Amino acid sequence: MAIIGNIIKGVINLRDVITPEANPVEAQEKVLKKLLKTAKNTAFGKYYSFESILENDHPSKAFAENIPYHDYDKMYQNWWKKLLDGEKDITWPGKPNYFALSSGTTGKTSKRIPVTDAMVEAIQQAGIKQVFALSNFDLPADFFEKEIMMLGSSTDLEKNKDHLEGEISGISASKIPDWFRGYYKPGEKIAKIDDWDERVKHIAENAKNWDIGALSGIPSWLELMLAEVIKYHNVKTIHDIWPNLQVYTSGGVAFGPYEKSFNALLEKPITIIDTYLASEGFIAYQERPETHAMKLIVDNGIYFEFVPFNPDYINQDGSIKDSAPCLTLAEVELDQDYVLIISTVSGAWRYLIGDTIAFTDLERAEIVITGRTKFFLNTVGSQLSVNKMDDAVQYLEEQLDVKIPEYTLAAKRFDDDFYHSWYLGSDLEHVDSEKIADLLDNFLADANKNYKVARSKALKGVKVNVVKSSIFHEWSGANKKKGGQVKMERVMNEEKFKEWEDFVKETQPA
C-alpha cells in the first residue's frame, strides 16, 4: 500500500478544501500595490514616481498612464545594463543573484534577464500551486511516490562578476527545495552536464535505475531524449523502461504539434498538463483536466496587463506602439487575442514578453497562448496566429496519418507573387507537395477569414517542402544550443528564411 503517497495526496486534497479561491481581479490589485511599494525607492521607482501612483485613487490607471511599455532592448539599455555594471537598486531593491540567459526563438545573442531571490521564491511557490492542483486530476496515491524527470538546461551556472547566469530552467532546478531532491531526476550530477547530447547519454545509461512517474520539459527536446532512451535499451516504448510513467507537464511551446509523435513513444496514454514558465517568471499552469487552458498566477509576484492584438497597435518588429490601449484583468473579454504585458518581482515593468494570449474563462482567469507578436504572419494581411498554424498541422496529421512534430514558414515573394512557403518536419517517404499545400490552404481559409481575404488578393497560394524532422533540431543546435528553453521559430522573416533554406540545402541528403 502506498502509505506515503496516500499521506501526500491527502494533504493536497485537504489544502484544496480549506484554501479559499482568490478573486483574480482583487489579487492583481494587491500584487500591483505590493510591487510599487517594494520598488518605490529604486531608480526606476523614483524616475516614474511610484509614490504618486500609490497615492492615486486608481493606481492601475495611473500606472498605465505614467509608465511606457518596455521591450527587452529598452529595459536592458536604460536600466538592466546598470545592474551588470555593478549598480544596485535599479528596478528592484538590491542586486539580482542570477541572470536568465534567453535567446528564445529569435536571434543568436542571449538576452540577460534579472532573476531576483523574490522571483526564485515566486517560481517555487507557483510550482507548489501546480502540485496541489494535481488533486483535480484523479491520480492514484502511488503516483506521489514516484520520481520526476525534469529535462531542462544545465544547472552548472556560469559565474559572471557578482552573479550567476544560466537558462531559467537551470536556475530553477539548481534551487529546488531539499525535500524535493529525492524525487528529482536525473539528479544534480547529470543535470550539471552542459553538453546536451552527453547529458542525454547519461540519462539513457541510468534510466533503468529510476522509477519515473512524471516528465517535465519542452516537448521537442523531451521527445528526443525519450527516443534515445528507447533506442539505448532496444525496447518498443518508454513504458518498457518506466512502467509507472503517468504524467507529462509540458511547457515553453504548444504541445499540439508534438502530440502524435510523442504518443508514438508511449505504450499507454498519460496525463498531459500544460505550464507557462518563461525566463521572466512562472506565468500560468493548467489547473483542471476539463480544459487545456492555463490559470494565470494572479497572486504571486506578477502583475498582468493586456493590449488588444490589433495590427494598428503593433510595430513591424513586434514591439507595441506607445499609443496602444491597455486593459486590466477586470476589463478583458473572452476569445480575444491580447499582447501580454507583465510587471514582476524581478524588476520588469510594463514589459512586453512577446506572447499573445486569449481568455477562455474570465472567472477563473484561464488563458491559452495564441502566438508571438513577431510570429503573426501578416505580411500580406493574412493575420495568421501560431495556434491556427498548429491547428492546420494537426489537421494534416489526421488527414494524412503522419507525424509532423516540426514546421516553419514565411511569406515569400516568388516570380509571380507572394506565397506562404511551408517547411514540414516529417519522415514521410512519398510526398505529394501539391496535395499537402491544398489541404493547408483550404483548412486555413475555413479557419481564418483574414487569410481567406488575403488569398483573394495579395496572397497567391501555398508552397510546401517536407524535410526530415532532425534538420529542425540541427538548425536549433547550430544557431543556439540544444535542449533547455530553445524553441524552433514557427515564422521567419525573409532574411532568416533564406538562411534556413540555405541550411536545409546543405544539410538534407541529396
UniProtKB/TrEMBL annotation:
It comes from the Bacteria. Pfam families: GH3 (PF03321), GH3_C (PF23572), GH3_M (PF23571). Residues 389-495 form the GH3 C-terminal domain. GO terms for cellular component: cytoplasm. GO terms for molecular function: acid-amino acid ligase activity. This is GH3 auxin-responsive promoter family protein. Residues 297-362 form the GH3 middle domain. InterPro entries: GH3 (IPR004993), GH3_C (IPR055378), GH3_M (IPR055377). PANTHER family: GH3 DOMAIN-CONTAINING PROTEIN.
